Amino acid sequence: MTEHRNRSENTHPKISASQWRAAWSLFPYVWQYKSRLFAAFGLLLLAKLANVSVPLALKEIVDSLQDPSTALLLPLGFILLYGLLRFGNTAFTELRDALFARVLQRAMRGVIHDVFRQLHAQSLRFHLERRTGGLAVDIERGARSIRFLINFSLFNIAPTLLEILMVAGILFAKYSPWFGAITLMTLVVYIFFTVLVTNWRLQHRRAMNQTDADANAHAVDSLLNYETVKYFNNETFEAERLNRDLKRAEDAAVQSETSLAWLNAGQAAIIACGVTAMMALAAQGVADRNMTLGDLVLVNAYLIQLFIPLNFLGTVYREIRNALTDMEKLFGLLRRPPDIQDAADADALRIEQGEVRFENVHFAYDTRREILHGIDFAIPAGKKVAVVGSSGAGKSTLSRLLFRFYDASAGRILIDGKDIRLVTQSSLRAAIGMVPQDTVLFNDTLYYNLAYGRPDASREEVLEAARAAHLDRFIAQLPDGYDTLVGERGLKLSGGEKQRVAIARAILKNPPIMVFDEATSSLDSATEKAIQEELQRISENRTTLVIAHRLSTVVDADEILVLEAGRIVERGRHGQLLDMNGRYAEMWRLQQKAGREDVAADIV
């Protein structure tokens, strides 16, 4: 709770520079449709002119009814004018909304599209450090705020202020200057009070947003790890943790609503004082016969017409401040530069041979603990190099560096002699196929997940890739076949089935360089042998990096690297490494012994 309180108390009540930047960032998205924008403002002006003219027509109707000589003809004309003005106000407003709807929707689409692309452009480090649930809440709330800010700032605040100035001008011109003075004075006091109190209560809004995002993030995190919760029988623990988050969100929300009540009460008091003063002045004018009954009706109509939207103006201002608060994180994401960026003069990677070379590569996820220490090796074009070693040795880090999810701290990685930091990330990743150790699927159909390897592939190509990965028989047994939904993160499939989907996707992509990161780790022995033969086939004439724990899967490699604590301690072919009787030979003997024990256990 202390963390959230401090975060709120340190919030400056004024509109921050980042909030102004967030608001200004919307301008290009709206300005690209400037012709519609100008037309919408034209219709807005016509609507306000019609609205301001309504009380004038009403005054003439009332005054004419007091003169018996005009009781039949003139009121009818003013009544028709009154009706036309009422209709005109509504018609111009609806036309404006219809014209501007396209601008609003396209601006929203443009912002969300750019934010989505920016999130995908961020490095793996960024996504590992963010909570998915909290990020989703920030995007959803920011998108909602964009709609509100564009719509209400353009068509509520400015039009209401314009209408107030027009009415004040009419009152100044037709009646005592006090009418206009009271109108403007009430407006000034109202705006000053609203801004002052809204800035004060903004800290409660920020605290409410933060606690709400934390609660959502924890809830999503818990549901994503549903099986882990079940394994450890921690349903009650998770519910209590969420309850604590919700309690903090509840306290912040109550504080926000309480401060809102004080704001509404103050605004109502200011409006009541202004209305009372105006009506007292008008009543005195009628009593002194300086004003007609129609004038009294006109003033009353203007009061209703002004102070109802003025009260709404206060609400809009509060919501705009809230919207700016909500948009800060969204546009912060949009402005955040990716950790990994293409060089200014980066070219597309052109694969000629496909040779991959690591030259004295050092890397650390945290500068205080280096993972790789001077890694030096090459994968000749069309050859297969395997990397083996114990867990935590840094094997998978090699593939992440090759894909440029991270950049090496020192040294360089070359493909056909070209430093991968000097080519575009898109062309680099297009040239590499990946079968990861942990395959995560989209919550969609099997076909969609298979075709993801190359979305523009024909259906026959997708089915052929599934056959090559030995998935066709399994899919044929499913009631919905290729249209089977795989569930969140593919949880409806077994580990082996998900792994074969990953293999099929890599086959479909058909790149010149392949990376297998524990590609058969989740398969049973029979399936592993079949898949291993298929991997052997698709690896032919391709540069292949195999990261493996099971040494039996890499005995055919052209070179095997033994990685320990981020250093290459042995290298050579399978037979050579066994003859060396070193770390690789020790691992081989241990795995062979474990395999024989498993077979004996199965027989028993």
Short key terms for the protein model shown above:
Rossmann fold; single chain; ABC transporter transmembrane region fold; four-stranded antiparallel beta sheet; 604 residues; six-stranded mixed beta sheet; elongated; alpha/beta
How would you characterize the overall build of this protein?
The chain has 604 residues and is α/β, with parallel strands linked by helices. The protein has three domains: 17-335, ABC transporter type 1, transmembrane domain (ABC transporter transmembrane region fold, Up-down Bundle), CATH 1.20.1560.10; 345-431 and 513-574, P-loop containing nucleotide triphosphate hydrolases (Rossmann fold); 438-510, P-loop containing nucleotide triphosphate hydrolases (Rossmann fold, 3-Layer(aba) Sandwich). 65% of the residues lie in helices and 9% in strands. It is built from 20 helices and ten strands. It has helices at 2-9, 17-25, 27-31, 34-65, 74-121, 124-129, 132-174, 177-224, 226-231, 235-287, 293-335, 395-402, 425-430, 446-451, 459-468, 472-476, 495-509, 525-539, 574-580, 583-603; strands spanning 356-363, 372-379, 384-388, 410-415, 418-419, 432-435, 513-517, 543-548, 559-564, 567-572. The strands form two sheets. A six-stranded mixed beta sheet has the order 6-7-8-3-9-10. Strands 2-1-4-5 form a four-stranded antiparallel beta sheet, with helices on one face. A hairpin with a 2-residue loop joins strand 4 (410-415) and strand 5 (418-419). It starts with a helix and ends with a helix. Mean pLDDT is 81; it is low at 1-13.
